[in-house]
Amino acid sequence: MALSGLAIYKLLPKTNCKECGFPTCLAFAMKLAAKQVELAACPYVSDEARESLAAAAAPPIRLITISSDGRKIEAGNETVMFRHEKTFYHEPGLLVRVKDTQPLEEFEEVVTQAASYSVERVGMELSVSGFAVENASGDPALFAERVGVLRAIADLPLVLISSDPAALEAAVAKLEGDVPLLYAADQDNWQAMAELAKKHKLPLAVRGEGDPSTSSGHRLTALANLVEQVKNAGVEDIVLDPGAREPVDTLVNLTQLRRLALKKNFRLLGYPIITFPGEGAASEAEEVALAAQHVAKYGGFIVLDHFDPATMYSLLTLRLNIYTDPQKPIQMEPGIYEFGEPTADSPLLTTTNFSLTYFSVAGEVESTGKPCWLLVCDAEGMSVLTAWAAGNFDAEVITKMVKQFNAGEKIAHRKIVIPGLVAVISGELEDELSGWEVLVGPREAVDIPAYLKFWQN
Q1: pLDDT value of position 86
Q2: Measured between alpha carbons, how far is 135 from 131 in angstroms, rounded to an integer?
Q3: Please, which pLDDT band fits residue 1 given cuts at 50, 70 and 90?
Q4: What is the spatial distance between Cα 181 and Cα 301, in angstroms, rounded to a whole number?
Q5: Which CATH number applies to 64-322: 3.20.20.20, 3.30.390.80, 3.30.930.10, 3.60.9.10?
Q6: Among residues 396, 406, 345, which one has the least CA distance to residue 375?
Q7: At 254, is the secondary structure helix, strand, or coil?
Q8: Is 5-57 CATH 1.10.260.40?
Q9: pLDDT at position 5
Q10: Average pLDDT of the residues in 6-31
């Protein structure tokens, strides 16, 4: 049974040292009771108290990891329903499904294309998380062979899909050192599946009833009962598939599972969720839309039936946006960045250190091929207009950055270009930067190439 904040407080050292990040031990206890912080944040809790608080300290959603050759997907350990409450921690894995019934050439082509796909956004390399291999043939030998073929092409985390424990056993033998997810235990095979997962110490997906005529409450009750049986058989690392596939049913089930884990502390359903958006879609476009729903609400492992670079980019970008800490924007290191081989006569532009702003500006500057200096100011990760409104990108800040990074030593013309959105600070900046000429550049990054085309020292 979960402990109350006051019960937890009685077991804490009560020193109010603030090293946990909270002003008092009571405040920390309340957060611990709400599953919004980990016990490890308290450096002075005794071993006896730690043992007593084990249940209260355990995350409401168990962390599950699948891995291969150092690459891994982690799902779980989430503490909030909505990212603005704090943040989401472990982004869902986006996996591409292949089947052992596909012609070998087609199988290899899909795996090769998906595994080699990579795109850069705001300085981060985004790629496919892994693969799901389905034993559609029902032949354990063919299934194991295709798993081996895939592994020879790509060292990425895997989900192994089969209702036959023998087929999964044969496939696992091809993956020495890897930690795949076994999918799935159901009411008919859970005992053999649990035995296999326990034997190899692998996570096991548990699949609930998918009958749309059955109420959501009944389906989740049946799923909890099945999870309890699997747990009692000795399997601790579990992934949930509530069985729903239709968009509305999926949204309802995934939301209810998250709420039961976080708000009700219902341990039997406190696990990450695997989803199959292609099975609830009538087209590839619908699959992408449903996958986007699962990224936001609340998929942990999302298995796609199609791979297309354009749609994958959309999902990866959405995932990046949702799983970026809203309280800590992605930032660039402040400083002076070089484009091309700038000289003392090259233009000096300035912007903020919000990553999306930086890469928008950098992309346009690079497209011109014109050597350029770019002064990136510390604006606490805010965009230009937001930073100006907050007082983090004004004449005083820019002047400080110019002096801190010795911009005057890099250029001879003493001209600095500020974004058009903050043209209002140009006069004040000229007063601050004695001897400098302040030029007002474009309002939008897309207009930078045209502006630089007519640059004159």
Answers
A1: 82
A2: 13
A3: very low
A4: 10
A5: 3.20.20.20
A6: 406
A7: helix
A8: no
A9: 80
A10: 89
Query: Considering only CA atoms, which of 128, 104, 73 is closest in space to residue 309?
Result: 128
C-alpha–C-alpha distance, residues 150 and 55, integer Å: 40
Query: Do the domains spanning 5-57 and 64-322 agree at the CATH topology level?
Result: no
Q: Comparing C-alpha atoms, which of 115, 108, 142 is closest to residue 130?
A: 115
pLDDT computed for residue 283 by the predictor: 94
Q: What is the DSSP letter of 61?
A: S
Looking at CATH, the fold of the domain delimited by 335-453 is given as Rossmann fold (3.40.50)
Q: For helices 140-153 and 165-172, give the axis angle rounded to 10 degrees.
A: 30
Give the residue, 219 or 290, on which the prediction is more confident.
290
| Strand runs labelled E in 320-393 | 335-339, 348-352, 372-377
Q: Cα–Cα distance between 296 and 275 in angstroms, integer?
A: 12
In whole angstroms, give the CA distance from residue 118 to residue 116: 6
- Higher-confidence residue: 153 or 37? 153
Q: Are strands 372-377 and 335-339 parallel, antiparallel or unpaired?
A: antiparallel
C-alpha count within 13 angstroms, C-beta hemisphere, residue 250: 26
- 316 compared with 453, residue with greater pLDDT: 316
The helix/strand/coil state of 34 is coil
Mean pLDDT value across residues 372-378:
94
Burial of 383 (0-12, 13-18, 19+ CB in 10 A): buried
Rounded to 5 degrees, φ, ψ at 136 are -70, -25
Rounded Cα distance, 368 and 452, in Å: 8
Rounded-to-integer distance, Cα 132 and Cα 99, Å: 8
pLDDT value at residue 210 = 67
Tell whether pTM > 0.85: no
Closest CA to 312 of 297, 292, 286, 330: 292
Domain ranges of the chain: 5-57, 64-322, 335-453
Q: Which two tokens stand for residue 163?
A: 């209702």
pLDDT in the model for residue 49: 81
Position 211, amino acid = D
What own/partner pairs with CB < 8 Å and gap ≥ 24 does 246-253 have? Answer: 246/212, 246/280, 247/280, 247/289, 247/290, 247/293, 249/212, 249/216, 250/275, 250/280, 250/290, 250/293, 250/294, 251/293, 251/297, 252/216, 253/216, 253/219, 253/220
Instruction: For 308-337, write each residue's pLDDT tens digit.
Output: 999 999 999 999 989 988 877 788 899 999
Residue 157 has pLDDT above 50, yes or no: yes
pLDDT value at 129 more than 50:
yes
**Strand bridging mode 372-377 / 415-418:** unpaired
Distance CA 251, CA 324 (A): 22
